[in-house]
Amino acid sequence: MILKALFAASATAALLLALPANAGQLTIGFSQIGSESGWRAAETSVSKQEAAKRQVNLKIADAQQKQENQIKAIRSFIAQNVDAIFLAPVVSTGWDSVLKEAKEAKIPVVLLDRDIDPSGKELYLTAVTSDSVHEGEVAGDWLAKTVGSKPCNIVELQGTVGASVATNRKKGFDTAIAKHANLKVVRSQTGDFTRAKGKEVMESFIKAEGGGKSICAVYAHNDDMMVGAIQAMKEAGLKPGKDILTVSIDAVPDIFKAMVAGEANATVELTPNMAGPALDVVAAFKDKGTVPPKWIQTESKLYTAADDPQKIYDSKKGLGY
Amino acid sequence: MTALLPRRGLAQILALIVILAVDRAVSPQFFDLRLQDGRLFGSLVDVLNRGTPVALLSLGMVLVIATRGIDLSVGAVMAISGAIAASLADTHGLPVVLSAALGAGLVCGLWNGFLVAVLGMQPIVATLILMVAGRGIAQLITEGRIVTFSSPDLVWLGNGSVLGLPVPVVIALGMLILTGAVVRGSALGLLIEATGGNARASELAGVGTRAMILSVYVWCGVCAALAGVIAAADIMGADANNAGLWLELDAILAVVIGGTSLFGGRFSLVLAVLGALIIQTMNTGILLSGYPPEFNLLVKAVVVLAVLLVQSPKLSGIAGLVTGLRRTKA
């Protein structure tokens, strides 16, 4: 079986002269940010799966949230003459010189999950990212559709103040509900993207809004804050998912658990599969020289209780979220 | 001594009353209390409940600071103990979970105390090591994910209630009484203050300064571990990346607001806990106010500055002079 695969692989390699003959498969270096969140861990494990599916040799370097480590990793990938480099940039600036080195070595660079400063646009092949404004829109559209024409007071749990994801998810949601006069955000506070703060802020929202009776829906910029908010609602004697609608973003396993229990209504997925599209792009670029667009937007899929949350929970829980 | 205490606490009590009044102004239902499923429900309860972790941290921190030390690692210790508690919760009973988590805090405290008391490292550097490494250890335990559990015993520690009061509040109160009884019921408190006031002189006078320093760091570690267990129990999960993040600074702030000098030599447990409550009353008020979150930190900074200014000896000297003048005029 293995022999057969090896044979097939080397045969393809022989056919495609563009590929290095000694390896017989693509070798890609991936400079990952580090273990900053569960989503990041899931992205790493999905990247490994996607690479294995395509028989690509993926070398992952963990930068421990430091740009200098990422730059070192990229230099070492260049020295190893890899076929392509994936970069999940920890910050948006300061990449010009190292990306120029990659360009001079004719190694294409694909950005994953985050974009960099526009000054370096010609220095990378493409960026595979999600549109966080669009994520907010999907969440807002779902709520508008679900509520219909009833008046609805929404409370919002924002991400960390100043984080671009938080700003964008707020912007998208606001745009989506602006079309509906019956939807109104009555309170908005930051929950710092964490469960503990999400719970604390929701507790205060409930107190401030007459025990929560005037709240019709909660919108959280991530699922973790929503999990905390759901606990706060339950402790206040409210029924999340029934009395109060919930919609949040990320699609981490625990929100599906809440959905199974009927305590959460909807979540918008920030897919951890950024490497899949990136691998396809690199393969096409290496094979046929196809130049991809500068931005590949991943799908922001909406999940509700109708999507068999138990099954999704089971498929996601092993990914390291 | 007993006459001294109220005078020392006056500024803090006044600050708390003022902040409570502001909270009442921004949120008219602030003092409303009702029973919800057998537990008290209202913003005041939230203040007590959410203030618990920092109050517990400040109980240990105030003793460390009294010896002229500081412990930057308490937030990381919270993350470690929370991670241990959450990992064991569904497979072991509460006694095992608690002893493992608190034991970890004890070991962390011993490590800090060893570096400071035995190796003579500067406390801010010695505890910085565990502040950085500790969160990494916690992340190793949780493998970077949020470890959730459903053990009703542990959940009760975070969300249960005793006589209507949240369990964390009862635990913090118990710890305050216990710590107070141990350090003020014996000469221990005095020896700790002596160590902080002048370690060399105390040692020559026969005080076991090393043992004092070691024991305050151990107690600080245990308090932090307890806070970590409660924080994990509260959200039914251990979040190694965020549990206790920056809370060491809030704990130090609580101690300072409580009037304890960073130069050591004297301390007040009750005022440190009051300091923690002042911080939380302000936080809850900010959340209730409905102001945009961009103002949170600014408001906090201004309030803290005001509270500390009220306590400044120079300023109170001027204020005392002014009132004194008024009195003589009258």
Brief characterization of the structure:
The complex is a heterodimer of chains A (321) and B (330). Chain A is an alpha/beta fold.
Would you kindly provide a written description of the structure presented here, covering whatever features stand out?
The complex is a heterodimer of chains A (321) and B (330). With 321 residues, chain A is an alpha/beta fold. Chain A has 2 domains: 147 residues, Response regulator (Rossmann fold); 154 residues, Response regulator (Rossmann fold), CATH 3.40.50. Chain A is built from 11 helices and 12 strands. In chain A, helix 8 links the parallel strand 8 and strand 9. Chain A starts with a helix and ends in a 5-residue tail after the last helix. In chain B, helix 2 packs across helix 11, helix 2 packs antiparallel against helix 12 and helix 4 runs antiparallel to helix 10. With 330 residues, chain B is mainly α. Chain B is globular. The two termini of chain B are 31 Å apart. The chains are: A alpha/beta (321), B mainly alpha (330). At the A-B interface, helix 2, strand 7, helix 7 and helix 8 of A face helix 2, helix 10 and helix 12 of B.
Descriptive labels:
heterodimer; A: 321 residues; alpha/beta; Rossmann fold; 2 domains; six-stranded mixed β-sheet; 11 helices; 12 strands; B: 330 residues; mainly alpha; two-stranded antiparallel sheet; 14 helices; 73% helix; 4% strand; ABC transporter substrate-binding protein (chain A); Peripla_BP_I (chain A); signal (chain A); SBP_2_dom (chain A)
Elements of chain B, N to C (H/E): HEEHHHHEHEEHHHHEHHHH
How many domains of chain A? The number is 2
Number of helices of chain A: 11
What's the quaternary structure here? heterodimer
Largest interface: A-B, 35 and 34 residues
Kindly report the average pLDDT value of chain A.
Answer: 91
Question: Which descriptor suits the 3D outline of chain B?
Answer: globular
Shape by Cα distribution of chain A:
elongated
How would you write the strand order of the largest sheet of chain A? 2-1-3-4-5-11
Instruction: Round the mean pLDDT of chain B to the nearest integer and report it.
Output: 92
SSE succession of chain A: HEHEHEHEEHEHEHEHEHEHEEH
CATH architecture of the largest domain in chain A: 3-Layer(aba) Sandwich
**How many angstroms separate the termini of chain B?**
31 Å
| Helix percentage range of chain A | 40-55%
Q: Return the CATH class of the largest domain in chain A.
A: Alpha Beta
Instruction: Kindly estimate the percentage of residues of chain B that lie in beta strands according to DSSP.
Output: under 5%
Radius of gyration from the alpha-carbon trace of chain A, in angstroms: 22 Å
The helix/strand class of chain B is mainly alpha
Protein name (chain B): ABC transporter permease
Keywords (chain B): Cell membrane, Membrane, Transmembrane, Transmembrane helix
Membrane topology (chain B): Multi-pass membrane protein
Subcellular location (chain B): Cell membrane
